[in-house]
Amino acid sequence: MSPRKSDSRARMVLGAAALLREYGASATSVDRVLAHSGAPRGSVYHHFPGGRAQLIDEAVALAGEFIAGLIDAAVRAGDPLAAIDAFFALWRHRLVDSGFRAGCPIVAVAVETNDEAPQLARSAAAVFARRREALAVLFVRHGLPEERGRLLAVFVIAAVEGAVIMCRADRSTAPLDAAAEIHDLLVHALRDRPDRGHAQRS
Amino acid sequence: MSPRKSDSRARMVLGAAALLREYGASATSVDRVLAHSGAPRGSVYHHFPGGRAQLIDEAVALAGEFIAGLIDAAVRAGDPLAAIDAFFALWRHRLVDSGFRAGCPIVAVAVETNDEAPQLARSAAAVFARRREALAVLFVRHGLPEERGRLLAVFVIAAVEGAVIMCRADRSTAPLDAAAEIHDLLVHALRDRPDRGHAQRS
DNA sequence: GTCTATACGAAGATAGAC
DNA sequence: GTCTATCTTCGTATAGAC
């Protein structure tokens, strides 16, 4: 768009993503993004005509694509179980490295979003959907039936996101470790067991 | 404490919990709680000397105990699997009834909490721990070994919380439905399969 | 693209009367 | 227990110069 690449614009989006992880969506104000990224105050609405909402939205898209891209790369590399392990390990390292202050920026936006900013909810939903699909491919490649792969992808994404939240609150990686351990058992069980009919729920 | 029971105080705590569910922690301002609960503005700091932080804290404790109490009641009633189904159903109904606006208030606080309000993180952690223990009892009663029951409790709580977040973003109960379906398979698998040694992760 | 200055609202919290 | 100011800080956003 611009005649030359803007450095401060990219730094603002990265800074916004970092603040989303550590402080949540509401606390990610324009002022704090500027302070964190060192970008100049005067050009905020030049780079982001949509104001703060646009900035957050781009940060969500960037952070979302980063994770989904990792999963895609793992699919191409061809070792599904190692890829899932890496997925758990990524969050574990982020938690520890940040002193248990960093969580998932997508979750932060999804939880704090309300009717006044519907676009942010849609962006968060798109990131979740993208991630689910990438992970489902991984499970199917690992030998699960397609339907089970999709269901399991939802379950695993949900469990990881929930575990990260609990890890932050507990200041411990124990919830994520427990989830990883159960996950191993789960994948083996779903691959080995025949698909019996299951009870219908109300 | 007071010579007679205060009505507006309880209404404020309930109102705060409702706002936490629908709008998140940062959006749960004292003003909004007052407007939502119809409580008088003048007595806020009489009832809550600790200010807004104390109000949120009590709302977290109240909402947390409500869910944990449901699980406890299910344990006493003696039908573990029905109890878990009810656990999933509770969230499903809350989502649908609120037009997919309501989430988990504990998650909201946990995600938005930062270093300036460390007590809130501790309160959220306590609620999660309480819920994990109640659910672990349920699984052990269902026939799982104690260690697996504890691990599975963490996993299921995490998956439900994560699924609720995704349901809100997607405006659909599909993630929660998928989690419930996988959960059935998981419980059966972990009860039936012998406890093999599993690979150590870094 | 970047600057300073400023308008405007909402938030938490306190003071002092009743 | 409840009322009505009021203080201060912080947030988004805009205006207009450079």
Describe this structure as you would to a colleague:
The structure is a homodimer of 202-residue chains. Chain A has 202 residues and is mainly alpha-helical. Chain A has a domain at 60-196: Tetracycline Repressor, domain 2 (Orthogonal Bundle). The first copy, chain A, contains 9 helices and no strands. In chain A, helix 5 packs parallel to helix 8 and helix 7 (118-141) crosses helix 8. The longest helix of chain A is centred in the N-terminal third of the chain and has 27 residues, at 51-77. Chain A starts with 6 loop residues before the first helix and ends in a 10-residue tail after the last helix. The structure holds a DNA duplex (18 and 18 nucleotides).
How large a portion of the residues of chain A is in β-strands, by DSSP E?
under 5%
Count of strand segments of chain A: 0
CATH superfamily placement of the domain at 60-196 in chain A? Tetracycline Repressor, domain 2
* Weakly predicted, low-confidence segments of chain A: 197-202
Profile the largest sheet of chain A: none
Fold topology:
Two copies of one chain form a homodimer.
Chain A: H1 7-23, H2 30-37, H3 44-47, H4 51-77, H5 80-97, H6 105-112, H7 118-141, H8 146-170, H9 174-192
Helix pairs in contact in A: 1-2, 1-4, 1-6, 4-5, 4-7, 5-8, 6-7, 7-8, 8-9
Chain A binds a DNA duplex (18 and 18 nucleotides) through residues 2, 6, 8, 29-31, 40-47, 51-52.
